[in-house]
Amino acid sequence: MSEHLRIALELAASQIPILPLRAGKVPFGNCPACADNACGGRPNMKNSGPCACPGVCHAWAAATTDANVISSGIWQRAWARASAVAYHPGGAGLTVVDLDNADAITWARENLPATQTVPTTRGEHWIYLGTMASTNAVRPGVDIKSLMSYARWLGTGTGATAALPAVVRVPTVKQPSTARRAPQAPTAPVRGQSGACPHRTPAFLDRGLAMAVQRITDASSAVHATVYRTFLAVLSVHGRCGCLTETHVARLFTAAQTKGESLRHCTDAWTNARSRLGL
């Protein structure tokens, strides 16, 4: 048994979905039956149908905890060529903050709560309990790997795993565009002209945000339109009194990105809703 296969089976026994990586830290390519998504993809992939292929053809969506699959003949051939073991953080209920350089690590130490830390080739992985949308380059040298993503397994590291805090989610709504000026999500409470506040108790705002997140989460079609209408509804009730904070906006953006919306679509939908309401 190869060392990679041994590690994979140990992780799978701990309910961590794994997959092999080939040279260059990339997944294995599609088999002929799955080329150009002819098989319909994997059931847990976005915009896909069922796939009976037992191979390692679908990147993060191929990750599994099934020891029989991991030890099968087609996977054995993959392990013989593998250069590393990867896992699907979101499938294990985790989020990895991938810090690529010393500046990113300094930022994390100054802004994020301490958690399980794993050294990497160039930096560190900070691992939190909880899932969110995966986003690359949320800051210079910082990637978020959770849902619909994979990360290399580099050992257990040190420290106790902390719960995913709101401060980890917030950077995903603050990424600037370097290509051209684009609308961005608000980075401060939304202020309107009237200043009237309808929130007799904090629970009123919390309940409204929870309903909005659920509406986006439950969308089975027309997701982009649902996101815009939901943002519009939230802003029409809560957008003029200054009670919305970055954390509230992050909850909405995270729900939208989990459904497959891009950060750009989220920022455009938010800005268009604000413009329509004259905020």
Summarize the structure.
It is built from 9 helices and 10 strands.
Can you describe what's shown?
The protein is of the alpha+beta class and 279 residues long. A hairpin with a 3-residue loop joins strand 1 and strand 2. Helix 6 runs antiparallel to helix 7, helix 6 packs parallel to helix 8 and helix 7 crosses helix 9. It is globular. About 8% of the residues have low confidence.
Task: Using brief descriptors, characterize the structure shown.
single chain, 279 residues, alpha+beta, six-stranded mixed beta sheet, four-stranded antiparallel beta sheet, 9 helices, 14% strand
Helix count, per DSSP? Answer: 9
Q: What does the radius of gyration come to?
A: 21 Å
Mean pLDDT: 82
Structural class: alpha+beta
User: What is the string of helix and strand elements?
Assistant: HEEHHEEHEEEEEEHHHHH
Question: Helical residue percent?
Answer: 25-40%
| β-strand number | 10
Beta fraction: 5-15%
Kindly, what is the distance between the CA atoms of the first and last residues, rounded to a whole number of angstroms? Answer: 62 Å
List the topology elements.
Elements: H1 3-13, E1 18-22, E2 26-27, H2 67-70, H3 73-81, E3 84-87, E4 94-99, H4 102-111, E5 116-119, E6 124-129, E7 135-139, E8 142-145, E9 151-152, E10 162-163, H5 166-169, H6 202-218, H7 223-238, H8 246-258, H9 263-277
Parallel strand pairs: 6-10
Antiparallel strand pairs: 1-2, 1-3, 3-9, 4-6, 4-8, 5-6, 7-8
Helix pairs in contact: 6-7, 6-8, 7-9
